[in-house]
């Protein structure tokens, strides 16, 4: 049962072979056993979870169950959820019990899904290793000496270790795809604007996008059907007709044009990752896909552009943490400015402070045009590269990260080194495109390696189709860590 | 560019983050490394390129000027570190 996909669990609930309460208990027991080792969850509340499960069983008995009613899930600890601590991995919000629900949480509740708990993450979603959490690092279940990736490391580990069938996540510069790759699971970051940001604790508003991690592409499609939708409370939510993201899953891949960006297979990519990606390309060819050489010439510029835009927006967004209306406040202070400065020095961790300071500088008087506007112009060039590339292909394929998961603690003192490892994921956020990570193999040391698929704007159904057909022919996504 | 100790102190002040004397060199070094990365942008010609703020380039929507929220003042104020008589308390700002 614990290893079943979301789809299979939904089927068992519909057939009446298991109740939602039984499912919730099984997962909670497993979490209780394994979470002390993995640290994937920040908050758990057995009574609340079981009450939700019993309500789902009652709804089913009343004949009003939807397709996912009673299925358990976990939420990344940055989706506000009424009555649950919403910490965002930060000491700043350690005492913040949300008084309202994020749109994503509302949608999952309306579907009748049951909350198992709230997953660990890099503080304010800033990080690629999950070492930046106030609640301690998350461990990779394939190798507890490896980072799980970040920032949605808790969500990715919870799915990989079968502590939940599915979890919500967010992706600002790779925070769904990179941990999914390092944990051997499937992750989907939708087109910017498809999932409402209402109630998501803001990091970089023009890049942040909610999504999902699960065992399979099919499960991602079912979850996106629940999570997506126009929401007028998010000013950047895109107004479009609802669609069924699972509609194209069964479509054969014959005739599919797969673009391979030559800049993604250049210097810096480890031979192990290259080997895995090439094997995946061979599999898609076997299914009738053709390969097209494409170019994304401004790829290298995604790093400086992102590390201006994201910190600038973070600096502005995180100015709300002032110790006045909610969150941490320093115990001792001389005056108002001293209160702000001590509150923020105590409440934020080192990486968050660094990014706020970078952002503060680039937005400060006299530097705005040289940095923020310049970065936004480069962002346009990067987006234009993709528009050009998609004239000759249906999906773009490449690595997620240059290497498999690195060791815990190995990059702690070198933020720039860590930033460079985001090279293949950042440009997708800058352009606002949908992207996936799909399990595709393992490194020699047994750590998983994912394949990145990038779709055109609103091309989620096609992307999920390609990932699903790949998963029908391979078994990388069904492999699981020994725990 | 290279940030001095004074620059770092000024940025920290603007960001309202207290930084100790002991921290300032290490933070300065890391910020300089990060700006070393960022400076690579400046070599790119972006004449006549329109800055991109939103992937879809959508216009912000307008809404009717109507009351849409319930009054939940007590629930929201319960989260504050210090309140009195429905007000948020902070150290004295104006003498």
The percentage of residues in β strands of chain A lies in: 5-15%
CATH class of the domain at 6-255 in chain A: Alpha Beta
* Total beta strand runs of chain B: 2
Number of helices of chain A: 15
Mean pLDDT of chain B: 93
Overall geometric form of chain B: flat
Brief overview, please?
The complex is a heterodimer of chains A (483) and B (95). Chain A has 15 helices and eleven strands.
Identify the notable features of this structure and list them briefly.
heterodimer, A: alpha/beta, Amidase signature (AS) enzymes, 3-stranded mixed β-sheet, 15 helices, B: 95 residues, mainly alpha, flat, protein biosynthesis (chain B), transferase (chain B), glutaminyl-tRNA synthase (glutamine-hydrolyzing) activity (chain B), EC 6.3.5.- (chain B), transferase activity (chain B)
Polypeptide structure, described:
The complex is a heterodimer of chains A (483) and B (95). Chain A is α/β, with parallel strands linked by helices. Chain A has a domain at 6-255: Amidase signature (AS) enzymes, CATH 3.90.1300.10. Helices cover 38% and strands 12% of the residues of chain A. Chain A has 15 helices and 11 strands. Chain A has helices at residues 6-15, 20-38, 46-61, 103-110, 153-160, 177-183, 217-227, 271-286, 302-317, 336-347, 350-363, 368-389, 415-420, 426-431, 460-473; strands at residues 41-43, 72-76, 114-119, 166-170, 186-189, 210-214, 257-261, 290-294, 395-399, 435-442, 448-455. In chain A, the strands form 2 sheets. In chain A, strands 4-6-5-10-11-9-7-8 form an 8-stranded mixed sheet, with helices on both faces. Chain A has a 3-stranded mixed sheet with strand order 1-3-2, sandwiched between helices. Chain A is globular and about 65 Å long. Chain B has a domain at 5-43. Chain B has a two-stranded antiparallel sheet. The interface between A and B is large, with 70 and 49 residues. Chain A: It is an enzyme of class 6 (ligase). Chain A: This is Glutamyl-tRNA(Gln) amidotransferase subunit A.
